[in-house]
Amino acid sequence: MPAPTCHADFYSEQTISDPVRMYNEMHGLGPVVWLEKNKLHAICGHKELVAALRNHQTFSSARGVSINENVNKMIVGSTLNSDPPQHDTTRSITFPPLSPKALPAIREGIEEEANRIVERVLKNKEFDAAIDLAPHLPLTVVRNLVGLGEYGKDNMLLWEQQRLN
Question: Taking the alpha carbons of 19, 21, 23, 25 in that order, is the dihedral positive or negative?
Answer without folding.
Answer: negative
